[in-house]
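name: query_chain
kind: protein
chains: 1
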Amino acid sequence: MSGSKSKVWTVEVVIEEHDHTVTAEARLTGRAPGPMVGEGTARCHPADENVPAIGDELAASRALNVLAGQLLDISIKDIESHTHERVHGIEQG
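structure:
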């Protein structure tokens, strides 16, 4: 593809577990003007079996969902600022 331009955005998810609470931070880098961060949490009810992989998945998915919502909100604002019209048909997070 002549004249094509590639960009690389990287998402790193860091997961930490303390007692029965898992937190995840999803950090998007490579995008101007700088990194974006989404955070998610999962808690294991004391009466439930503690399965760390489930907490990791849930906390990470929540962090990524927050990050995706932030990116969508920025996209909508950018479209509106360039078109001077309200964006319709795009679900906001």
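note: The chain has a mean pLDDT of 92.
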